[in-house]
């Protein structure tokens, strides 16, 4: 806390990991003596830079850009870029720390990193977003590379922003290399990447239910967010026969008691990605639905919950409402959406709970596959990639089982399982390198 004052998100993420790793390494002197956990909590490197750009009225604007290179013990730094007015160094340090464990869990050779800016893309014209992205990459390009650090998208950074940044990198370096993932299919992107995080969070929950001989079909699901992760989680849920009844954004949530079907979801995708509108507009198109301004959807009765918007969006009282209303399983599409108090409620109630570093690892897994395709200059087909994504999620689930269950107890602690499985590989690599 003294070394990272005021970084509450970062403290929260480290605390959650330390709570399970410290007991695990008690009888393993090799990890304790090498102080591996302490070393993991100190990022390898943090860069911060000025991003200067011009708005449509000719005003000069200044934002701050960052890249947190947390750990590259098992592969190049890898993790998204977030553009949101709330972004601070603490946010990015927590995300980079989580990413290190998540990337390890995928089984692919990727280290952990994260970056972004306090730039707010909302209300900006397309050209303003372009000029910002170009200015951002003009600073970032000297710190990244296909074998060094490969950023991707995150909140506020989708296909459009990746395109502008990739184009600027190409212009600056005169090289066409896989320095970003989430690219368009025309210039080195991978099929299934767009869908991967949302689909993966649903696959995780499917595997959790399977352990209890249950399935997704016929269940009611509450989803928060209406961005990339939320919409593709909803798509997979609908495909598997669930009824999705909510979506949200930072202004509130919509509740459609009849369920959001494929046509309604297509409307939402167009609304958010093309028209760049607000989720409240859903009720003008579908009047049976209601909009709840300034609220989150956790008090709507459901069997399954998918927080897919942002960190700390599901508090202790929300978790209590979910449990009281009969929710049986939670899969986190967003990063650290549940507060520590909320997690405790789920675990005490012994409901199935998959933390983000396991549940939303599908996105970075397919990003890893995008890197492989770029290196080999080939493209795999959709069937192949879907199969690989499904297998990776199954492996993550099984790794959580291995380290998350006590003999004689049928409750699976997916938090402990994911932390330990993610930790082992990174820790062993760090020990192999000696003290560096
Ligand atoms: P998008 O930008 O596509 O969507 C974000 C959604 O969350 C929007 O609906 C947004 O609403 C809402 N949101 C953002 N901030 C807040 C807030 N403070 N309160 C309430 N709602 C908010 O981002 P993604 O879908 O890509 O990311 C969502 C989450 O998933 C993040 O936690 C991200 O880190 C995580 N994630 C994403 C991956 C990916 O592949 N995209 C991979 C792994 C994790 P509004 O439009 O009003 O801001």
From TrEMBL:
Gene Ontology biological process terms from the UniProt entry: glutamate biosynthetic process
| GO cellular component terms given for this protein | cytosol
- GO molecular function list: glutamate dehydrogenase (NADP+) activity; nucleotide binding
Q: What Pfam families does the annotation carry?
A: ELFV_dehydrog, ELFV_dehydrog_N
- Alphabetically ordered keywords of this record: NAD, Nucleotide-binding, Oxidoreductase
* Reaction equations catalysed: L-glutamate + NADP(+) + H2O = 2-oxoglutarate + NH4(+) + NADPH + H(+)
Q: Which SUPFAM superfamilies match?
A: Aminoacid dehydrogenase-like, N-terminal domain, NAD(P)-binding Rossmann-fold domains
Residues annotated as binding NAD(+) are 197, 228
Provide the binding site for substrate: 78, 99, 102, 153, 367
Where in the chain is the site Important for catalysis? Answer: 154
> Known InterPro entries for this protein?
Aminoacid_DH-like_N_sf, Glu/Leu/Phe/Val/Trp_DH, Glu/Leu/Phe/Val/Trp_DH_C, Glu/Leu/Phe/Val/Trp_DH_dimer, Glu/Leu/Phe/Val_DH_AS, Glu_DH, Glu_Leu_Phe_Val_DH, NAD(P)-bd_dom_sf
- Domain (Glutamate/phenylalanine/leucine/valine/L-tryptophan dehydrogenase C-terminal): give its ranges: 190-434
* Active site residues of this protein: 114
Do you know which NCBIfam families this protein is assigned to? PRK09414.1
User: So what family is this one in?
Assistant: Belongs to the Glu/Leu/Phe/Val dehydrogenases family.
How it assembles, according to the record, is: Homohexamer.
What's this protein's function?
Catalyzes the reversible oxidative deamination of glutamate to alpha-ketoglutarate and ammonia.
Q: Which protein, by its recorded name, is this? A: Glutamate dehydrogenase
Q: Which organism is it from?
A: Pseudoteredinibacter isoporae
Starting at the broadest rank, the lineage of the source organism is: Bacteria, Pseudomonadati, Pseudomonadota, Gammaproteobacteria, Cellvibrionales
